[in-house]
Structure formats: C-alpha cells, structure tokens
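A favour, since you know our structure tokens better than I do. Go ahead and set the record down below.
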Amino acid sequence: MQRLLIGALALALAAAVPAAAENRGHPATHTNHPAAHHHTASHRPATAHRKVRTTTHRAHHGSKKHTVRRTTKKHTAHGTVRHTTKKTVVRHGKKRTVIRETKKGTAAHVTVRFSKQRRAIQATKRFHAGGYRRPGGWYAHHWVIGERLPRPWFGRDYWITDWAIYGLWAPIDGLAWVRVGPDAVLIDPVTGEVIGIEYGIFW
C-alpha cells in the first residue's frame, strides 16, 4: 500500500513540473495591466481646442482688482490660432468697473513656417489685368510685410489663382495671392497677414 502511495505521488510531481515550465516560458497577457493602460493614454489624439483659464486677485489702496484671462488655442491646417479674452473687475467701495480686452494672434511657429515666403520686391514687368473693383472701405496704402489686410479685401474675387502667368513665386500650402490695387499681395487667408508683396505688377 505504501509503495502505491509513493508511486502515485511521484507521477503527480512529474506532471506538475512540465506545466510549471510551460507557464514560465509563455507569460499570460493582461489587458488591465497598468503599463498597457499608460501606453494607451499617452497616445490619445490632441484636441482641436484648448482652453486655459487664469485668475488673479489684487488689493491696492482700498480697491480690489479681479482679473480672469481665458486663452483658446485652435489647431488648423494653417497653424495655431490663439484667442485671448481678458476680463478685469475693479471694485472701489460700491463702485464696480468692468474692463474687457480681446486679443487674437497666431502662434510663433506659424511665422517660422512662412519665413521663406517673406519677401517684398518691385515688379520688373507689368501686366494689364483689367480694372480693379475696390472693396468696401478701400483706401490707398503702401502695404508691408506683417500688416493685416481687412477681410473684405481678400475675398475669393480678389484671389490670383493663375499666379504663374504673372511670374509670382509659388505660394506654399496655406497661403494665397490676392490683388490689391496695382500690387500682388501674398497673405495667410486665416488671419489676413501679409507674407509677401510684389509692388506695381498691375496697371
């Protein structure tokens, strides 16, 4: 009887050893493992809008100043557009003054992206492209790089789509040539910023 028990115990140990070796060679995968969850979270797509809110409180000579600044960043194909709204409330006793400021601009990398397109030259050849139909609020102005055209000035009717015919340099994706009086102006259609100019190309 004792020999039978010893034999059965030996068989059980022999069966357990290969199973343990197999488990050591092929670890099980766990979908809820913390490392796997961290990897998934770090690859979430960036949102198109990002809002940042900052609040400051100041007291000075009996008056209280409360400022709330909200910044929204919108990522577009043309770059990042930053829109900042600043609201300041000044209290002096029962008197309450509210000051609102709104500022819209582009991130610095947009300027870097268009840096190779920034040039202002005088045309060596002039072209007759018909009469110029002035937009609303038009006024004569010597435009320079960095200024912003009013939005009615660069509507689709003013775009120069056949820029190669006039010898204008090829705009990179995100820029457009428009006609402003006798000049051809290269702009960012998102902001109206003047990127390049060829003066006196039309008559």
